Task: inverse folding
């Protein structure tokens, strides 16, 4: 079993920055890809950013390109999402997810992931 714990969400104003963290623990694993998703009220869950095990392959949703940055520290089993220039439309519950196993690629479909965090709320006011 793997546990993912997100932190760093909260209230922000448009133009502000927030940094989300997601720490993985539990079962021993050697390599994994990770992703950040979000779900706004009344909307489906969508990919925000994804990163491969090495960090060499990264993908972003078009809506966050140039504003959000995903990164990871494998020694700490932690993935980050730096969110700059926040907009009200970024308001959502943000989830991190992990896909176990070695691969050079990232994953953008939620059904490809093995475990999920509990989510952290991000609210951006105008």
Result:
């Amino acid at each position: 079993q793997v546990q993912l714990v997100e932190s760093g969400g909260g209230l922000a104003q448009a133009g502000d920055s927030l940094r989300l963290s997601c720490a993985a623990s539990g079962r021993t694993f050697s390599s994994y890809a990770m992703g950040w998703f979000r779900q706004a009220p009344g909307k489906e869950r969508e990919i925000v950013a994804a990163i491969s095990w090495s960090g060499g392959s990264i993908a972003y949703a078009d809506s966050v390109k140039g504003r959000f940055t995903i990164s990871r520290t494998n020694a700490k089993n932690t993935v980050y999402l730096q969110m700059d220039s926040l907009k009200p439309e970024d308001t959502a519950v943000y989830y991190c997810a992990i896909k176990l196993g070695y691969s050079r690629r990232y994953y953008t479909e939620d059904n490809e992931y093995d475990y999920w965090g509990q989510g952290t709320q991000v609210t951006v006011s105008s």
